[in-house]
Description:
Layout: E1 2-4, E2 10-16, E3 43-45, E4 49-51, E5 55-62, E6 67-75, E7 78-88, E8 94-100, H1 103-107, E9 113-121, E10 144-151, E11 156-160, E12 167-168, E13 173-181, E14 185-190, E15 197-203, E16 206-214, H2 217-220, E17 226-236
Parallel strand pairs: 2-12, 4-10
Antiparallel strand pairs: 1-17, 2-17, 3-5, 4-11, 5-8, 6-7, 6-9, 9-10, 11-13, 13-16, 14-15, 14-17
Amino acid sequence: MPSRVALALCVLALLAAPVAAGTVASGSSAVPEVGAVGTHGAHVTVGNQAVSDGTVVVETLSTAAPGFVVLRADDDGDPGDPVGHSAVPAGQFQTDVPVRVDADVWEGWTGNRTLRAMVHHDDGDGTFDPDEDRSMADRESAAETAFELGRTDGRADRVLARVSGSHQLRDGRLTVRRVDLSAAGYVVATSVDGDRVVGSRALAAGTHENVTVALNESFLADRRQRFRVRLVAYRDDGDGT
């Protein structure tokens, strides 16, 4: 049986389903066109992950003006001290942006900790200063998100699936942009509440791109227009099932 990784790794994927009669027939591949999410304003998304080298992968990121994505400690639900940052160009929707946790912080990292990723405005000098480069989250709630970061002995565990707009189903399959596993395991699609497994795929340890996961026909038959599923990474407990 698969065992959940020490850190719950999950994201919500917005899917566009075929709309003919509101159901999906077996083998159907017709999907509606879905407009992309605009890059106006600032937003950041980061999923829970476990890494060996202190590199956090920010899943999606955009800002209308030049700035920085900043990792901050969590101070009882509020942003704490900065622990890492990276520059962000203006007006670009970006995916899979690496941001390193500061070496002195990562050196003493143990267990799972909550961090906050925030978009900050650049005051014009191109250098991040927490006192001068204001947080965009004061005006835009999407410019801040909390996530859990753990430490592994090797490689990483993460699921990167968010896109600009909606995923397009092809023959009842969704495509996950990237899955990282530190050991052999599975990527599993469940209902949003997690009560129902609706698809899964076994994967070897390593980095996998454009991973397709077939969703159960019985689940798809009840979907209309757009819907969400939860994607979770599991490590295999050794029995291969």
